[in-house]
Amino acid sequence: MTDFFTLGIESSCDETAAAVLKNDHELLSNVVYSQVDLHAQYGGVVPEVASRNHVVKISPVIQSALDEAGVSLEQINLIGATNGPGLIGPLLVGLSAAQGLSLGLGIPFIAVNHLEGHLFAHHLTFPNVPPPFLALLASGGHTNLIHVKAWGDYEILGNTRDDAAGEAFDKAGKLMGLGYPAGPQIDKLAQQGNSQAIDFPRPMLKKGLDFSFSGLKTAIRYYLDDHPDAHLEDLAASFQAAVVDVLITKLFASANQKKVDQLVVVGGVAANSGLRQQLDLYAKKESKTVYYPDLKLCMDNAAMIAACARYRYEKMGEQSSLDMSASPALALPTA
Ligand code: KG4
Ligand code: ZN
Description:
Layout: E1 5-10, E2 15-22, E3 26-34, H1 36-40, H2 47-69, E4 78-84, H3 88-105, E5 109-113, H4 114-125, E6 133-138, E7 143-150, E8 153-159, H5 165-175, H6 183-190, H7 214-226, H8 232-258, E9 262-266, H9 273-285, E10 289-291, H10 295-298, H11 303-314
Parallel strand pairs: 1-4, 4-5, 6-9, 9-10
Antiparallel strand pairs: 1-2, 2-3, 6-7, 7-8
Helix pairs in contact: 2-3, 4-11, 5-7, 5-8, 6-8, 8-9
């Protein structure tokens, strides 16, 4: 059997990424250029700044992915790129690059849904653990509970009504005077704090499977107004405990609703040590198994995009049109 090489491209937000996948899940390279330093001064991603930087970085990042993989452009058999959801300008940069390469090389192209891409981090890390599973996707841009019935067949059970979980960490951190992104710093501070020091609200805990985190941010603001010398470690630990509580309660509620025993956590917030600790405890108690895909594959990257493109091309016989445009609000596909 001759080897099959897929080039994946991701540019939906503030990471310019390219990766080369050999056959189904042998990852040869996974290059991620993060623009985080560019956006740090604004405390969040500025779409126009992101678009312009993607234009500068996209070709060198693709070249690095090919070089690291030891694969030439002419050896690539398939190209996959994110076409949504995400920021329209950034999406168009990666998508146009992929479509141009596909046309120039005369090879097929697959447009990949970014959320479906995140789910394929699981396929790359645990190729022998197929769906069904219940996935929590918690990142700076998304908070979703997704029932993965089979690859290609998804049902979103829960969504955030306002801020995403990672965004809540970032905004809380900003109020606490921490730099962007604040998630990892809050995680670190929380390890030295008392999570019961402050009784923060658990928004919508018992109300359905949707999330709302913006009230927590307001609670932090009020707390800091009243306690300007607040103990940052306790504040971080109490805030984190509130977010983790809500995420875990709803993840288990959705898994029980669908009678699914396998749980998967992806997105940048999957790195959170408090979340992992609590999840492991709950899972043991409830006889469920939690899978944590490789962290590098949980954050935005192009390896997950390549894996998804390969699956859709190879197993589902798909191919996308070269005039397909970017869709900032693209929904997850159902069967
Ligand atoms: O998936 P990701 O790298 O990018 C997207 O947003 O798509 O996620 C980044 C988000 C940021 O909001 C960051 O603060 C959060 O994930 N994050 C964390 C941790 N590491 C990253 N949040 C909590 N605890 C962490 N250890
Ligand atoms: Zn993402």
